[in-house]
Amino acid sequence: MSEHEVTVTVDGSAERATVEARRLLVHALREEWGYTQPNVGCESGKCGACTVEMDGDVVKSCCVLAVQADGSEVTTVGGVDGAPEGLAEVDAGDPRATPAGDNDEFGPVQRSFHEEHGLQCGYCTPGMVLRARDLLADIPDPSREEIREGLKGNVCRCTGYENVVDAVEAAAAKLEPIETDGGTAGQADTVDGGAPTGGDD
Amino acid sequence: MIPPQFDYERPTSLDAALDAVAPPDAVPLAGGHDLIPMLKARSVSPGTVVDLGGLDELRGVERVADEGDTTTEQLSVGALTTDADLLDAAPTGADALLDATRAVGDAQIRNRGTVGGNLAAAHPASDIPAATLAADATLHLVGPDGDREVSAEGFATGDHETVRASDELLTRISVPLAPDAGSAYARKTHPSTGYAAVGVAARLRVVDGVVIGPRVAAVGLCDAPTRLAAVEDRLAGADAGAPVEAVESATTRAGDGVDAPVREDHIVSADQRRALLPKYAEQAVSEALARAVGREGVVA
Question: Fewest CB within a 10 Å sphere: which of A120, B91, B150, B188?
Fold first, then answer.
């Protein structure tokens, strides 16, 4: 067996550890460095509870060795704030919106999960929020079908997904693409119309 | 679920990677979505895991003109190109490959999973091998004795079995891009695994209103990707002007001539897979035909 010195920037902080080669990134995050928002769920790459951003891409941290993340930038849900990349919040004046001052450290996606009750036990929520942000960055105004397809890698055993889809729709309504010269922020990651949707595969 | 102990190496050149995978107990690691779950389940126990992530030379997608025939091109996909990067590149003329890549796992998995890793892992229900088989792609291997090419047809031999020797690495995949060909992939997702219960890729050309050179391949059906000869035979020469009839008559008995054992598990039986096959063959062939008709006449 081999042990390796790794340095990973997690939510902006440089974290170091000596890890066995077999150490999974999710275990290093939780147990070496105390970032407990990525959860350990199915441990087989299906449920998405361990989702983090690694160098800008959402990944399942139970399917990455900690040593593979050496030199990477990892963002957990605790490290995100504000709107997803390429989007800005519009002041929609939603009367149901969380009052100012309550949860104002949360960005629009987290607040929408709160307001629409897009969770019950909350175990899947860190992964759901990170993937929802990533989805909205790709497709700023997704259909319900695109949301379901887009979240297929994140399993929720409580909600039946209705409120999760509501939450992502509500977040989309709070956001608009930032005008750029290139205008590519809204490029769609289209989905296979032939595949059945639903989050339980 | 903790993997067993192993050593880890991350070579930064192809030569160093070949040295690292030379010992019989060394295994290459690409995107990790086949190997790492197997390590956690302890169904494999390698001495050394050789992370190929440092081999930037094996990433990227480019179009290459065919030697000797300037009217056709090959799409050259570096083996370590992630599924997401292939989809972002969105090369035209490789629709079935893009359809199949889009069907892989989910967004997080496509961000890590690689095209070459998918093929080399040879999961029997993986999507991409259907597209490479239908496209008559070529897989490029390098080993201690040099390079060799293997057709997609000859690559996978069974469940997680290929002709790749343990000291060889898959470096890139060449996919022919006939500009007037149409291709598509359709699948029934397995309700438990998320892989294909059955998946079918089809590729064909339409010349003077007639279907030419159809290739149709299924995954999830048998342990290795399987050509659907009955569909190909009935489709060749069919009238593209009557696509509904042509496709239906070609795909109704899509499983005829499939001699290898059909897979089954406690959720999807072999009979169900055979019963699902015509519908997904029909979807794939219909879409491939529509795309080919859309491209007919592109090349004078």
Answer: A120
